[in-house]
Amino acid sequence: MQRRKEEILDFLAEGVFTVDKNFVINYFNKASERITGFDPDEVKGRMCKQVFQSDLCTGKCPIAEALSSGRNLFDLKSRIKKKDGTFVNVKLNVGILKDEDQNPVGGVVTFRDLSYLLDNKYDNCEHFYGIVGNSRVMTNIFNLIQEIAYTDASVLITGETGTGKEMIANAIQATSKRKNEKYIKVNCAVLPPSLLASELFGHAKGAFTDAVKDRIGRFELADGGTIFLDEIAEMPIQMQAQLLRVIQEGTFERLGESITRKVDVRIIAATNVDIKEAIEAGKFREDLYYRLNVIPIEVPPLRERKEDIPFLVTHFLKKYDFVYKKEIVKIDKDALDILIAYHWPGNIRELENVIEYAVIRTKSEESITLCSLPEFIFDGKTTCGKKQSQSVSPARLLQLLEENHWNKSKVARLLGINRTTLWRWMKESNLT
User: Fold this and answer.
1) Whose CB among 97, 236, 347, 421 lies 3.0–4.6 Å from 417's, allowing a Cys bridge?
2) Do 62 and 92 contact (CB within 8 A), yes or no?
3) Once rounded to an integer, what is the mean pLDDT over residues 100-110?
4) Strand pairing partners for 270?
5) Which helix (H) or strand (E) holds 422?
6) What would the pLDDT profile of 45-76 be if each residue is shown by its tens digit?
7) Which of 25, 14, 83, 73 is nearest to 49 (CA)?
């Protein structure tokens, strides 16, 4: 009977998982696996918030709320983290599991992927393992990632800050033959040299003052899998020789220890530094560069692939529409034109911040307008407020209101302003 119940749950299109009273996952159906990418064995025995990192987990946990109130919860909007590191928008229901004596023993969560329900003219944009892009250069990168899936060769990803190098690395790992093995990430820029060596290679007890016990390093931890070394150009020159040895021979020693250890690790590295200039300046080993650069991937800045901006805008609009529980489904053409014209020194990361800002400023059920955007995005051009105040007379405003049956939301969208600005204009024109 239990097997039959699980077969029925696996037949459902909705994801289903159950937790005990300690929020530890003990059942995970096929749809959950398909939506999230997680294998059931990877999540069973783990707390649900550690796996999914839902935005609801940072507030009032719906499972905890259901258990404490004794009531089931329905149609909660959220987003959960997938195995590849990206997030998917979901709508979920939470129920209470009870024993034979009707005592609560855990919770059951059902959820469905909502991303396909959002209607937008840019829905055909490419989503490659969380990477959004439809330009020729990004399509070529997607094709390359698929072509190298069978190999363990080192990859060096270069590009400006904010271009999405880590997401490229994630996609490489997710499509590789090591995709089910450990994936360890290290940012070489955030750790001081004295700690970086210990983090990468481990240390023996007594190797330095705070080494109170033996510690395994990231390379040893990643044995059989993949390690991503971000900001590789920040690695001290003396440590680069140790990394070169790992690549060439697969061997290393922990700090304070003479035992040679062997590992089998695929290396993906990334940097926003011009490596050739670093080599000329004596800050990066040329032999290490050639060992890392077996498969080079250069991620272009956003200003060089502006045809991707509409797709990225739509992607981030959907994301933050769910985060802030709004119903914003589009962006006005004038606002989109401004975004396309902007030079984006901060690349995709800056664009994401701008869209989040615009979503916060836009009321529910309205579109993103010029006035929703931060002023710096106009890049020296007149601001939206000045532009609109110079072009709309009280007579024209009255005409628009009458033509649209005094639908203020519609008139505001036509003018590229928000409802608050429209109301102020109406008051100034004695139209209230």
Assistant:
1) 421
2) yes
3) 91
4) 157
5) helix 419-428
6) 999 999 998 878 766 788 988 888 888 988 78
7) 25
Q: Which has the closest alpha carbon to 89: 360, 322, 359?
A: 322
pLDDT the model gives residue 1: 55
Token pair of 386 as six digits: 């000045």
What does the buried/exposed string (b/e) look like for 115-152 if buried means 16 or more CB atoms within 10 Å of the residue's CB?
Answer: beeeebebeebeebbbbbbbbeebeebbeebeebeeee
Encoded amino acid at 137, one letter = V
Rounded CA-CA distance 133/125 in Å is 7
Does pLDDT of 185 surpass 80? yes
